[in-house]
Amino acid sequence: MDEIKLADSNGEYDDGAGYAVAISGTTAVVGTDKHKTLVFVRRGDIREQLQTLPVGGGDDETGHTYGVAIDGGTIVVVLGGKAKPV
Predict the structure, then answer these.
(1) Phi-psi region for residue 73, left (φ > 0), alpha (ψ -120 to 50) or beta?
(2) N-to-C CA span, the chain
(3) pLDDT by 10s per residue, the chain, length 86
(4) Is residue 83 within 8 Å of residue 75, measured between CB atoms?
(5) Strands (E), the chain
(6) Which of 31, 38, 79, 81 could covalently link to 20 via disulfide, CB atoms 3.0 to 4.6 Å apart?
């Protein structure tokens, strides 16, 4: 099994990435505590950040991703205890 490091493409460190992670097929969704959720895809041997989903409001309670899930083509992000499809 290979080990890789997924990092935000903007180079931001210490964003709390990894509190919530979902993997399905070639897609990985990684929650952070900085008002965003990161979507990564694998294409062959290459892993790249596909998208950054802005999430939550401007406060700390809704800025933290408590959970993520992937179901088919749908990603669900749980913020502040409420599910919000994106």
Answers:
(1) alpha
(2) 31
(3) 566 677 777 666 666 677 789 999 999 999 887 778 889 999 988 889 999 888 766 555 556 777 899 998 899 888 765 455 66
(4) no
(5) 21-24, 27-31, 36-43, 46-54, 65-71, 74-79, 82-85
(6) 31
